[in-house]
């Protein structure tokens, strides 16, 4: 009895479309380049409209040095993004090998694709609703917002005028991962400030100024590669610690680290957009079911709806998925019978069935001697067979 109740609750359609997400996938650290601006992340942040009409901030951050370039924008268009990429990144730091962005329409435009092709740039995109896959730029956006929020209410209306100072502050801050400031890793020395001039740290009138400058420059060039190597090692150490922490959380949940999903598994997808919507508080948190269509690696999957009329292939991260157990009412055995031989409205809704499809699936259930197994039925959907094709094979 206890096992029967447990299975009934586990397979309950209404229960499965509610509940929070869980941590399914291991952490896959981003490879660290040894050259500045070889791999960068781009993102556009929406902010309050300034007096000058600026509503967005576009930023590009280097994965090695954490050095950032940014500018305000009035409109979030592909032409503005392409101009930023050319003027602020390519013309200042050279052509990057890889840029990482989200799946926003301006980033996926033909113009951006052509710019990347002309300058031999590899454009990679993150999976939707998974900011962790582009966490570096997301963390910068949060820090930049905190810096700008410290201005007075009147000054916040002119945030575009204070953006350069905010960027300078960020570039001068020592990073926890690299143990150096982005400015130091970029140029080999710490930035000179009015405080340094006031205390005459750099005295141009000194007769030893030229000798000191020469010695300082030589020392800077000698140590620049060394501190970048140290930064690379520090980043890898931090990544290893983060990966270990994630693995521990997964082991606490599943007691194993093997891949949670396999080809052909039936899953539900979490509706992340509901987390910021009050109207979605009472809505179902999960949608589906879907079937794992392709394993892309590094915790990413292609999924396909079991509705044969929906041919769209979706790319999702494993942390947005959870296994789906098809209700037992759909899989009658030789020892149990369905009295009415009809599907309830709830099951029809979950499987996107119209009246003819529901009748077909009912026929499929009512003839146990000719019925396929559950696995065969799932494979039929996975291979794209229609309900009419399934029924034809039963006659």
TrEMBL record:
Protein name (database record): Integrase catalytic domain-containing protein
Superkingdom of this protein's organism: Eukaryota
Molecular function as annotated in GO: nucleic acid binding
Record-annotated Integrase catalytic domain positions: 32-190
Span of the signal peptide: none
GO biological process: DNA integration
Gene Ontology CC terms, in alphabetical order: nucleus
